[in-house]
Amino acid sequence: MDEGKWLYCPKCNKKTRVKVYEQTKMENFPLFCPWCKTETVVNVKNYTLVVVFNNQKEQT
Fold first, then answer.
1. Measured over all CA atoms, what is the biggest interatomic distance in the chain, rounded to whole angstroms?
2. What's 24's DSSP letter?
3. How far apart are CA 3 and CA 42, in angstroms?
4. CA torsion angle for 54, 37, 27, 4 (degrees, to 10)?
5. What would the pLDDT profile of 5-59 be if each residue is shown by its tens digit?
């Protein structure tokens, strides 16, 4: 079985809490980064992450 890969934040490039597999398909998925506290809407297909919308508001 496929071991999968972790998704990394497109802003700070640290590992998030979301793991995907080769057959995983996500559209308009809100990816939250616990490190930089930002939410980015992404599409994922065949381990390829594409940023749809990047929320520039940061929490202080």
1. 41
2. -
3. 21
4. 130
5. 999 999 999 999 999 999 999 999 999 999 999 999 999 999 999 999 876 655 5
